[in-house]
């Protein structure tokens, strides 16, 4: 673990708002929605030297520099599973009619004595099917390796399996994946919140910047 401490201005993985907005100068999205769990919500403790905003709110702020009239909906709920998201958030998301939509990656589906990955895949596929019907650009994360639940000895294997499932579905549905599994930020000793699960605001800032980079790359590939 690295003991180097940064501020938002000195963090090599963080983009200044003006630079991030410049990377998305031609972004077409006007209706941005986020559904899912605490990872989608951007839950985390404060970090000295960083703004107190989760990644999703940060990203909405950046996108508003390009699209001042951006409509933004975040219905994410702490501890929500994929089934919870399907049961309680999908209808509101569809009524909102997003053109940019962030999907959860099933973190809370792992918090069972013996996760059934066949069922998890079915639930996630149903969520992807319903999300794809909106015609929105879809995004998601993979879980970082710093995220740990020691009570489960096979936790790393669980996360690797879920991340592989997320990548496979994302490839099938043309979803932009921000892959946090082996991102260097995982090595920072001050990354996690007190619960040792959620990224603190320093990590949230990095995740927002990585979302900008991933979507900017997607836009660049679409440019003739």
Would you give an account of this structure?
It is an enzyme of class 3 (hydrolase). This is SGNH/GDSL hydrolase family protein. Pfam families: Lipase_GDSL_2. Helix content is 42%, strand content 8%. The chain has helices at 17-23, 38-41, 55-66, 82-88, 90-96, 117-132, 155-173, 201-222; strands at 31-34, 71-74, 100-102, 137-141, 176-178. By secondary structure, the protein is α/β, with parallel strands linked by helices. α1 crosses α3, α3 packs across α8 and α6 (117-132) runs parallel beside α7 (155-173).
Primary descriptors:
224 residues; alpha/beta; 8% strand; globular; hydrolase activity; GDSL_Rv0518-like; SGNH_hydro_sf
Question: How would you sum up this structure in a few lines?
Answer:
With 224 residues, this protein is α/β, with parallel strands linked by helices. The protein has eight helices and five strands, in the order H-E-H-H-E-H-H-E-H-E-H-E-H. The radius of gyration is 17 Å and the shape is globular.
The run of helices and strands is HEHHEHHEHEHEH
Radius of gyration: 17 Å
Kindly state the percentage of residues in helix. Answer: 40-55%
Poorly predicted ranges (pLDDT <50, ≥5 residues)?
Answer: none
Distance between the termini: 43 Å
- Proportion of residues in β-strands: 5-15%
Mean pLDDT, all residues = 96
Strand order of the largest sheet: 2-1-3-4-5
How many distinct beta strands? 5
Contiguous helical run count: 8
